[in-house]
Amino acid sequence: MEIKFVLNGKEVAADISPSIRLLDLLREKFELTGTKEGCGVGECGACTVLMNGKAVNSCLVLAAQVNNSEILTIEGITNGEELHPLQKNFLLNGAVQCGFCSPGMVLSSYALLEENPNPTDEEIKDAIAGNLCRCTGYKQIIDAVKQTAKELKVEVKV
Amino acid sequence: MSKDFSIVGKSVIREDGFEKITGRAKFADDYKFDGMLFSVMLRVPATHAKINSVDFSAIQNNPSVASIITSQDIPGAKKIGMIKNDQPVFCDEKIVTPGDVLAMIVGEDETELRKLLTKIKVDYTSLPTLTDPKKSLDPDALLIHPEFGSNLIVHHPLRKGNVEKGFAESDEILERVYTTQTIEHAYIEPEAVIAIPLEDGALKVIGSIQNPFTVRRIVASVLNLPNEKVQVVQAQLGGSFGGKDDTMCMLSARAAVAALKLNRSVKIRYTRDESILESYKRHPYILKYKVGFSKIGKINAMKIDLLADGGAYCSMSPFVTWRSVVQATGPYEIENVQTDVRAVYTNNPYTGAMRGFGSPQPIFAQETLMDEIALHIGVTPDEIRRRNGLKLGSVTATGQTLKEHDVNLIPVLNKAVSFTNFAEKWKENKKNQTGLKEYSFDQPIFKDEQFISSEKLIKKGIGLAVSFRGCSLGAEGLDQSSCYISVQPDGKVVMLSGLAENGQGLRMTLLMAAAEELGVTADKIIFLENDTSKIEDSGPTVASRGTIMGAAAAKNAAELLRKQLEKVAREVSKLDETDFISFRENLVFSRKKGMIAKFDDVIKAAFENKVELSAIGRYKSPDVSWDEHTGQGDAYFTYVYGCQVAEVSVNTGTGEVYLNKITAVHDPGTVINRLGAIGQVYGGVTQGAGYGILEEVTNEDGMIRELNFDQYLIPTAKDIDEIKPLFLEGNEKYGAWGAKSLGEPTLELGAAAIANAVCNALGKRFYNLPLNLEEVLLGRKLRPQDLKRGSL
Fold first, then answer.
1. Would you say residue B139 has pLDDT above 90?
2. Which of A133, A43, A28 is nearest to B29 (CA)?
């Protein structure tokens, strides 16, 4: 079947088998390998992407479901060689170790800040509770999100 | 350390950070090659079975199947292993555990191949199973590998002094039995590997590989090729924690056999279920301790009997249990010690290396036992440790006198105790202790509103645990490492280490060590991709040896190079013999003249004068010794010390343990990258917490129940409130500027500290990990009756 959607700001079309997952579409067809598969059952969050602004596990979304929607992946977060403030703060805070969960973590955090620019610690933890990380212990990730929220708020004021 | 560092000790962003945070970093499954095929595994749903025949006729002529690979296709070794070659690459006669693979089928469409697996007819006869390690050594026990004549994998005895005499002289004796559970590494990236045929029958392997040199050795043996024909390149590794060693050797060997047979690239990638099914786990232990002590709590004698379930294969069991025998008493000076550690075969999933490596199990037992002794004689937990703890000049259970290194046990303990106000909180909680709510089937233990406002049910607890840990491999094996460094004519530096980046940030640590010694900024150095064909074998990246062995080699390489450059700078600037030259942050200074040149100018001059611009640095461990009959010797050349304090809230109605705060005081020697070091503490503490209260791989007659993250629960962002890392950097003489080990010590203490904290809250002691809800509330584990659950 033929689907059309907006992928990282660009209109794209794909001819797909109705049974494939959004994760496969992104990795295989569009070669956007920043989206990772860790469990295939929606538990680890490594495949998190934004669908119409909401964080979803792309292993649980059929590619057919994204017809006429907007998808944002980690590749669409970066502006050329310029990092998004979230990405920059992940690095500054040591929130990246092996890096396998990082794209999903960034996208869950991104979705949170879009919806709630001033989150509490508990709200940050809730937003990334569906993203497993075995390396960092999460503290640096929470700090990175807090710091980004603060910086973006300052920017808006200016 | 008094040295004025320019980069060492600072927080520096890792060199691979940009690639990783933008999603551009390539992990094994992100690689694609022209004409690449996939390979999927054939297994049978049995734990122990004789394979009578495998009938491939239903798929043999299927166009989706490029090839069927069985043990017949293996040109070399059909069995492999880290220590003992007991694990068949393909099991064509019998399987001894459910993860075992009989054969594989190769083709272009992985999904189609998986469907075709169900059409292969396997005729097998299920055999009786042995899943209780306590029965492995019974005279009538079935033998997992009959060719060895016994299920005993290894026995490490240790004898020091005379324990019977020690017990006779003791005022009190305690005897306790503990158990620890099987756990899964749970790296978020499942295993993946691609084997690529090269010209002349050579082969390249790219994969999620922890130890490229080990993979090279094993692949070469399976293919019957010399080492140099097998090139192993590590892809970005999505977590390992000791787990991507044996399994990756196996997967690499299988992919390599298919790739050479078909002369095409072959990829194997595991789903999470397959990963948990086949990969090895942390050893579950049964730990028996008998301890004799005086009225003031001085320990006279300790008799220890540890039994480790090695599962179906030997793997690293002999080394894992060797660390246990060295460290089983904990960091205490005890005159009379008798320890026996055994690892045995069963039909359970096999167990091997995992971060901690034979230390978290005895620490849980011995550190909760220390708290019991403290309660017996009426002192606080910190005080009993001060009375017995290792100090400079103490003699360990292995007869090693601790000298020539920084023996920081009591300093880390004191720092943790004073920082957390431990003794006062411990006494206060003890005063407020209450037991758990009574539970019966007829009567709800509490009403709904108690769930909603559960404050009254919450009891606070605080507990601590201490450890000493031998750095690097010790008497387990050869211990050396290499680092190559060279400067390009434009002043850019490239380096390569024989140790591997496993996600922990090792490359950045090595890079910083080289930058410091060479006097350049970190951005001037490019780290080359790890490749077995380009650097000497530096041994595996295990045993928290990356920094102590790797940074020392990196520093040595940079020092050799800098000395060459000093000569050039001295000549170019016409400095006299008595002047002193130093390199710092891309500039070169003379003591008498101040700044004399830029680093790049010295390089240009050196290049023009045909001066050698590369160096190989090495570091080899000081000598260690071991007598395997008595368990005596200088087991490790140096040790690190740690103390963690857990503060918990226990819900006396549900048994839930919530971790409010874990304070982790570690002595890693000199910290190189502070950002990386703190990351090791946060991550290790969190894994330790998972081991303490959440994680367990259980099995039903060998069949694992928790095959994915919906069943196997690891800590999320919501499970620990606060972690406080504190370093006591000390003044060590080994390693680069005294930089030692940190990765594993951070993990090994958590479960024991938490168990002691829960006891402080409830007045009830726990002997079995994990302290999940049912263990705390009911004192036993709840198990489903069979594999069926929910709607399945």
1. yes
2. A28
State how beta strands B525-527 and B493-497 pair: parallel
Strand (E) or helix (H) holding B42: strand B37-42
pLDDT digits (tens, 9 = 90+) for B579-596: 999 999 999 999 999 999
Domain containing B533: what range?
Answer: 17-24+480-620
CATH number of A85-157: 1.10.150.120
Domain map of chain A by residue range? 2-77, 85-157
What's the pTM value of the predicted model, to 2 decimals? 0.97
Residue B332 bridge partners (DSSP): B389
Residue range A2-77 in CATH 3.30.70.20: no
State whether ipTM is beyond 0.90.
yes
Mutate to test the interface with B, among A96, A106, A143 (most CBs of B within 10 A): A96
Residues in chain A: 158
* Cβ pair A36:B27 closer than 8 A: yes
Residue B275 domain-assigned (yes or no): no
Question: Is residue B90 domain-resident?
Answer: yes
Backbone angles phi, psi at B321, to 5 degrees: -75, -20
Decide if pLDDT at A20 tops 70: yes
Cα–Cα distance between B700 and B697 in angstroms, integer?
10
Distances, alpha carbon B117 to alpha carbons A17, A107, B110, B156, in Å: 22, 36, 11, 43
Checking phi first, is residue B610 left (phi over 0); if not, alpha (psi -120 to 50) or beta? left
**Which residues of chain A neighbour B186 with C-beta distances below 8 Å?**
132, 134
The whole-number pLDDT of residue B786 equals 47
Residue B149 placed within a domain: no
The residue in chain B having the minimum alpha-carbon distance to the alpha carbon of residue A135 is B683
Say yes or no to pLDDT of A153 above 50: yes
Q: Which residues pair with B181 in a beta bridge?
A: none
**Cβ neighbours around B489 below 10 Å, total:** 12
Helix ranges, B198-271 (H)? 212-223, 246-262
